Amino acid sequence: MTWHRYSIWDDWKEWTQFLALVDYSLESSASVWKSLPVKDRDQVTLIRTNGGSKFTCPGDRFLPTLESRHTVCTLLILSSYALIEGHVEEVLSHAADSSLASVALVNDFRNGIVTAKGLCSSGGIEKWGTTLLSAFARDWTNVHGGKAGAVEVATVRNALAHGRKCVTTSMVNRVSAAGGALPWSVGDPITLDMALTSLYRNRLRSFARVVGTAAHVTAYP
Question: Looking at the predicted structure, is the pLDDT value of residue 149 above 90?
Fold first, then answer.
């Protein structure tokens, strides 16, 4: 049996390295800025030119920008979730190519009745994730954080993807219905840091591993 290596893992590694290097670079820049013998930093303006564009930043805003990880962490969550959706396509394609006939979902995919995009658009991860896990004889107890954890990640991801800045009642209700809780209350700003981003990505990675491994074992018992 030749073990299929899913493409998600090379991309996942690149994004993980990117986050680590950006975190290191921002931390280093913050240390340098703090060490400079500059008085009245609120009177300083930093200017950077790049081709025909010019960026300016007030000195008193520079350090908070360097110390925040929300923007880069948002990018990582959006990208990581997109990788999961792409992974679903590859898992189903690989299972279909294996001539696996015992899984109804795979047969529907092979026959064009179900598409990965359509599956991932049907009712949120609490629905399509359950469908995918069940198809390969798995459930949310096999996934780090369970269904509640995955729904929390998906809820935060959706809010960020649509430009939402603060927690809404519908967000709280969705996560609560799955048995979980957001780390913020209604009206609080949605703010990501390195620790929360690592937790969310670990949950997504666990889901991807469980689904990918289960599909392979089912296809090649």
Answer: yes
